[in-house]
Amino acid sequence: MSARHVVFQPQADSNDGGDAPVVNSDAPLEERIIEALKTIYDPEIPLNIYELGLIYNVNVDQDNKVFVTMTLTTPGCPVAGSMPGQVERTVKSVEGVSDAEVELVWDPPWTIDRMSDEARLTLGML
Questions:
Q1: Candidates 3.30.300.130, 3.40.50.300, 3.40.50.1260, 3.40.630.30; correct CATH number of 5-122?
Q2: Rg for the chain (alpha carbons), in Å?
Q3: 41, β-bridge pairs
Q4: Residues pairing with 102 in the sheet
Q5: What confidence score (pLDDT) does residue 83 get?
């Protein structure tokens, strides 16, 4: 069985990412991207999407184009239509990123096992 996925392609006018997240500009690009992703919080769980385990992969190519593979806690998540766009705008706002593409996938499905120890501690699961 093949993986089901959706590639989010924002409308031409959807680059209103707001202020860029504050990250250490001396850090490697991938680290800065991850720090920026940690500024995005799940609207229903008081954790950032990176520690929650919603970001499956961050790849940076030789031209500094970033490819993010992510999921949501459930396919019926109320932010399914907006979260990938927010992730894309946030990644694009990181200095040095030339472009970004976000792929929303449902396979493998998200489980609490994907959460970081920090996230588990915050939720009282450790």
A1: 3.30.300.130
A2: 14
A3: 48
A4: 8, 68
A5: 95
